[in-house]
Design goal:
The protein is of the alpha/beta class. The protein is built from 13 helices and 6 strands. Strands 1-6-5-2-4-3 form a 6-stranded mixed β-sheet, with helices on both faces. It is elongated.
Length: 321
């Protein structure tokens, strides 16, 4: 998927470039900066000495040396001083500058740490919002796989009020209750209430087939007045995957892919259920993944990156390819 949040060690990421949250000297430091220098070896520091430092919000590039990545992009994020000293603009600039350097050097994949959230003290939830916004703006115009690497998943938290609300929503979904239609949306329940006359022959049964996922998706894109590019980018999917869907009327997507399109098209719950059913899926109260996505759709909140932040925080797969 074009933008993914992952947990792990950024020095082990097999991407074209990793981003180093450096200081203005570019001569190494603590945290992720020190880890990258240790993993890359002394040649990285030797090259950094030739760069003449880097201003806050800007970026410079070196070779990756012993790292799996071909390049290291060094960027300097702002020190948090309460939010009233241009920190947000500087942090967004650090992401944009890094992405432009990656693009200029032909990188197809890049991995970022959550810049400025270590000793620089930028609040993690706000830093994540700036990061996803800056990366999403870039991806609207360019094709690249971008990873936000969170070293400690346990320390990752989305907005406190949203986290508490989602936690309560998930708890309610586990509570025993009388049998009911999924999410109180009739289409999620499957067949209509009335009895349906069974087909007399196999030919009659086949004639009753409804739209395939690809057919329904392409129809909905047209009805929404969207372009293909607008749709797959809002769905956090690649052009390559969308091309497969468009060229194969019988394409069977994964459930996260089908849900991603429902979010990208900003479908109300009933239509979202219908799109999932066309791919052979349904929302389930037994799945935390499903409950979280339903939470956002039911409230008309269709920012796929916000949804993915919540999914990551609760240890679920992300929407997209």
């Amino acid at each position: 998927m074009p933008l993914a949040i992952v947990s792990g060690d950024i020095t082990r990421m097999r991407v074209d470039a990793i981003v180093n949250a450096a200081n203005e000297s570019l001569l190494g430091g603590g945290g992720v900066d020190g880890a990258i220098h240790r993993a890359a070896g002394p040649q990285l520091l030797a090259e950094c000495r030739t760069l003449g430092g880097c201003r806050t919000g800007q970026a410079k590039i070196t070779k990756g040396y012993r790292l799996p990545a071909k390049y290291v992009i060094h960027t300097v994020g702002p020190v948090w001083r309460g939010g009233g000293h241009g920190e947000e603009a500087l942090l967004a600039s650090a992401y944009r500058s890094s992405l432009q350097l990656a693009l200029a050097h032909g990188c197809e994949s890049v991995a970022f740490p959550l810049i400025s959230t270590g000793v620089y003290g930028y609040p993690k939830a706000e830093a994540l919002r700036v990061a996803t916004s800056a990366i999403a703006d870039f991806l609207r115009a360019h094709e690249m796989d971008v990873r936000l690497v969170v070293f400690d998943r346990d320390a990752f938290r989305i907005d406190g009020a949203l986290y508490a609300d989602l936690d309560a929503h998930l708890s309610r979904s586990k509570a025993p209750a009388r049998p009911r239609r999924a999410f109180s949306a009739p289409v999620c329940a499957g067949a209509a209430d009335g009895a349906v006359q069974p087909p007399a022959t196999l030919e009659q049964a086949l004639a009753r087939r409804e739209e395939t996922f690809s057919q329904m998706l392409l129809r909905l894109i047209d009805e929404k007045g969207m372009t293909d590019v607008e749709c797959y980018k809002k769905a956090n999917l690649s052009r390559k995957l969308f091309s497969k869907i468009r060229s194969d009327s019988g394409y069977r997507p994964s459930k996260p892919t089908a849900m991603a399109f429902a979010v990208a098209l900003e479908l109300p719950m009933e239509q979202a259920c219908a799109l999932l059913q066309s791919a052979g899926f349904a929302f389930s109260r037994a799945s935390a993944f499903d409950v979280i996505v339903e939470y956002f759709i039911a409230r008309g909140k269709y920012d796929i990156f916000e949804i993915n932040e919540a999914l990551f925080a609760f240890g679920q797969n992300l929407l997209g390819g």
